[in-house]
Write a structure and sequence with these properties.
By secondary structure, the chain is mainly α. The protein has 17 helices and 4 strands. About 50% of the residues lie in helices and about 5% in strands. It is globular and about 75 Å long. Belongs to the short-chain fatty acyl-CoA assimilation regulator (ScfR) family.
């Protein structure tokens, strides 16, 4: 009689395999199997690894045993993730991004046992149709105006966007993912009604990051009900992207305030106001096109000049990036208030140290420290 691993969750093996960028065939070879059928059977819950194979899995993946025997949490479905420009994205890169996003949400669920994260704070947007194909440009302008008003932003330049979103109930993480095919991915944790954004920092720029955040904000608020089957239709995808671009421009560069700062319709004028409005020259150029301030001839000349003058990057693009703080500050407070020690975080959570280091943005020295823990919670 074959001896398996009691409580083994095949979905966990699939998660960690995808996160490592492995196919079933490659994992099978690493574990000593002849083909992928054994891996498929384990991932689908039809088989369980022997104690010997389980030890190989633990050694290879560097994940703790309780990760593999803990069922997936409710409300987190990475298949519902929203990507920016995913048509050229290969399945391995797409899968890695989706799994990391779901792990971020699961880690936040775990931390929420000890703290209350900021509540979701968005205005009533029920006037905007749920069907993306019914959303008009007027709807998008209305959404941008309502959101600005609700968050007390008035009509000037936007503040630190990551801090703004985190303070209003969004949870954000960013890191390099060794892929230039995607900029950001987002989804809703249905169990906690929390929106999550994962940023790819492979090609980081302060201004690009801010634009990507606005893009994901629109997808989260208005494209949740998008037809996923239609995402493969170019015209449908182009319209979703066009809507997100228009929203980013309207929200960051309001039609009734941004143009008043331009003393001329040329690149030097845009370069001068870039530091104030905190958007790229390219984004501001798109905005002037949307507003009809530039005709086609003038716009074409400015784009050509932009590519010629700043082929390697725009001025100020090396500005320090905005950084997420909510997970980092939560983990720090848990330790400082003696709620739970770093050692207990590692033993209690299903995630290994390197994953928690990434999400919490805390180095190895933090996890090696320890203090006695008290059993208290919710100090936010």
């Amino acid at each position: 009689m074959k001896v398996g691993t009691p409580g083994f969750q095949g979905a966990r093996l699939k998660q960690v395999r995808i996160a490592l960028g492995l196919t079933q065939e490659s994992l099978a070879l690493m574990l000593g199997y002849k083909d992928a059928q054994s891996i498929s059977a384990m991932e689908n819950g039809k088989d369980s690894p022997s104690p010997e194979v389980m030890q190989r899995i633990l050694s290879l993946t560097r994940h703790p045993m309780h990760f593999f025997v803990t069922p997936l949490p409710e409300g987190i479905d990475e298949s519902e993730a929203l990507f920016r420009s995913m048509r050229s994205l290969d399945e391995i890169a797409k899968g890695r991004a989706e799994v990391n996003l779901s792990w971020l949400a699961e880690y936040a669920q775990y931390l929420s046992k000890f703290v209350d994260f900021p509540k979701l704070n968005i205005p009533d947007l029920s006037a905007i149709p749920q069907d993306p194909m019914l959303i008009t440009d007027d709807h998008i302008r209305l959404a941008a105006d309502r959101l600005r008003s609700h968050w007390g932003l008035h009509r000037g330049p936007l503040p630190n966007l990551i801090n703004l979103l985190e303070s209003n109930g969004f949870i954000i993480h960013g890191e390099p993912f060794e892929s230039h095919k995607w900029d950001a991915i987002s989804f809703w944790d249905k169990a906690t009604n929390t929106p999550f954004i994962l940023l790819n920092l492979d090609k980081p720029s302060y201004f690009r990051l801010r634009y990507n955040l606005l893009h994901e904000l629109f997808h989260l608020l208005f494209h949740v009900h998008a037809d996923r089957g239609m995402k493969e239709v170019k015209a449908y995808e182009r319209e979703l992207e066009r809507q997100a671009h228009l929203f980013a421009g309207e929200f960051a560069l309001p039609h009734d305030s941004f143009p008043a700062d331009l003393f001329a319709d040329n690149l030097d004028a845009l370069r001068i106001v870039k530091s104030k409005w905190k958007m790229s020259i390219a984004a501001m150029l798109h905005r002037l096109e949307d507003l009809g301030i530039l005709d086609k001839s003038k716009s074409s000349k400015m784009w050509a000049n932009l590519k010629r003058r700043w082929r390697e990057g725009e001025p100020l693009d090396d500005s320090p990036l905005e950084e997420p703080t909510i997970i980092n500050s939560t983990v720090k407070m848990l330790k400082e208030h003696n709620v739970i020690t770093p050692h207990s975080l590692l033993s209690d959570s299903v995630f290994p140290q390197d994953t928690q280091e990434r999400f919490a943005r805390m180095g190895e020295e933090f996890w090696l420290s320890d203090v006695p823990a008290l059993k208290i919670h919710k100090f936010y």
